[in-house]
Amino acid sequence: MKDSIIILTGGGPAPGMNTVVGTITKAFIANGYRVIGLHGGYQGLFEENPRIEDMNFAIADSIFNRGGSYLMMSRYKPTDEDFEKRFNLKLFYDNNVKLLVTVGGDDTASTANRISKFLLAKHYDIKNIHVPKTIDNDLPLPMNTPTFGFNSAKAEGCRIAQTVYEDARTSGNWFLVSAMGRTAGHLALGIGAACHYPMIIIPEMFNKTKISVDKIINLSISSIIKRKIMGITYGGIMIAEGVFDGMDPEDLKATGLRFTYDEHGHPELGKISKAQLFNDLMDMKFKKLGLKIKTRPIEIGYDIRCVAPIAYDLMYCSQLGFGVYELFHEGETGCMVYVDQMGEVRPLYLKDLQDPVTGKILPRVVDIDGDMAQGIYKYLVHYLTPSDYGAAKKWIPDPENYDFYKILNW
Fold first, then answer.
1. Ordered strands of the 174-179 beta sheet
2. How far apart are CA 86 and CA 314, in angstroms?
3. Greater model confidence, 211 or 245
4. Is the pLDDT at 211 greater than 60, yes or no?
5. Crossing angle (nearest 10°) for helices 311-329 and 150-171
6. What are residue 332's phi and psi, to 5 degrees?
7. Which of 136, 138, 280, 403 is labelled catalytic?
8. Is the distance from CB of 147 to CB of 133 less than 8 angstroms?
9. Mean pLDDT calculated for residue range 298-312
10. 4-149+309-353 and 155-305+380-408, same CATH topology
11. By the 8 A CB rule, do 239 and 178 touch?
């Protein structure tokens, strides 16, 4: 029986998933291995009859430049009981599996590590290599190396945001755009800056003060009034969805907006459009101030996860794919494949990324004090400063409350 490998994809999709899977398939079958694609993510490893598929060159060549994931994904996270009672070890024995390749985010990587330890305890010699991905770019790879899919998602986000900005300019409206990114503002900052949005709001901005509804609203109005002073009646405000997740639930409740709540009494923000929420909050403030501003909500999220990868990710993901074969051939296991900025393939171990105390992988956030972020906020976005107070009083009675630096305590 041929030696074989199993590939699965976990978490949510990112541009380049198929490039990784297709390249791995091509590399291994060219070297005499059987390649098995497992559908359903980790769930397939805990089912008696998992859906598997033999991958060949024709499949690999038809998917490598496509968006989405040919291998069906899931966010299944096995419990200790699943390992003890439902792990399908027979799948590995019957198919002479020598390597398990997992493609996903940090949760997928952590589960891969658990599987590796479990198989070792069962005295089954199988290697495992993980390919890290997230369009949020919040996995802390060395030297600020981006995670695959991020640049393709950002490019598609820019295409949408540019069209939206053109509409704002054409119609004299303001668009309130929410971009995906729970713990970090990389996508929102990258898209907003590339499209020269006059206000970009990300969680990392609030490094010296607490996030609140009033602050995000006042930052937005600061930009709108500044543009009025400049004689500009349109614009766009880009906000990372993580800004809302970082709010005090009581602060959101106090707005009077209607939410559904979880068992802990917290608003279930995952079930609503962050852009619509933002738009509703802005409308309430406009009415209070007597401002007549037309706004429209736009969500950038699920529409960027399954786009076809751009050239950057096509090449990057191909390197990651054949990097898996190289690491396996060198005897590596229990690691992630990493391509450094010189194009060299290296193993990266979870312990290298985990917090030494908690064992968790801390998310990589935007360096808000770095040159890139500071340059964006100094030169691209628009907001009120003390020199604008006099002119701003034409529209608002207390412009000092909308001073960008005072709001953020910068």
1. 199-201, 235-240, 174-179, 295-300
2. 37
3. 211
4. yes
5. 170
6. -75, 150
7. 136
8. yes
9. 94
10. yes
11. yes
Cβ contact 68:30 at 8 Å: no
CA dihedral sign of residues 117, 354, 366, 177: positive
- C-alpha dihedral, 179 to 182 to 184 to 185, nearest 10°: 10
Q: Is 107 exposed, middle or buried (0-12, 13-18, 19+ CB in 10 A)?
A: middle
Each as own residue / partner, the long-range contacts of residues 374-382 (CB below 8 Å, 24 or more positions apart, any chain) are 376/189, 376/193, 376/200, 377/200, 380/193, 380/196, 380/197, 380/198, 381/197, 381/198, 381/199, 381/200, 381/223, 382/198, 382/199, 382/223, 382/226, 382/227, 382/230, 382/235
Q: Which amino acid is at 31?
A: N
Q: How many residues does the chain have?
A: 410
Secondary structure letter of residue 310 according to DSSP: P
Kindly state the tokens that stand for 285: 């403030």
Per-residue pLDDT reduced to its tens digit, 336-395: 999 988 889 999 987 777 777 776 778 899 999 999 999 999 999 999 999 999 999 999
126 residue type, one letter = I
CATH class of 4-149+309-353: alpha beta
The pLDDT-based confidence of 70 (bands split at 50, 70, 90) is very high
Confidence of residue 259 (pLDDT cuts 50, 70, 90): low
Q: Classify each residue of 207-228 as buried b or exposed e, where b means 16 or more C-beta atoms within 10 Å of its C-beta.
A: eeeebbbebbbbbbbbbbbbbb
Q: Percent of the chain beyond pLDDT 70?
A: 96
* Confidence at residue 345, expressed as pLDDT on a 0 to 100 scale: 94
In this structure, whether the domain defined by 155-305+380-408 belongs to CATH 3.40.50.460 is answered with: yes
Let me know if 167 is a catalytic residue.
no
Nearest C-alpha neighbor of 323 from the set 307, 300, 340, 306: 340
Q: How are strands ordered across the β-sheet holding 4-9? A: 52-55, 34-38, 4-9, 97-104, 127-132, 335-339, 345-349
Which pLDDT does position 277 carry in this prediction?
87
Contact indicator for 1, 96 with CB cutoff of 8 Å: yes
Contacts of 376 (CB under 8 A, 6+ apart): 189, 193, 200
Domain boundaries, the chain: 4-149+309-353, 155-305+380-408
| 3-class DSSP assignment, residue 50 | coil
Dihedral angle computed from the Cα positions of residues 102, 106, 109 and 113, in that order, rounded to the nearest 10 degrees? -170
Cβ contact 237:197 at 8 Å: yes
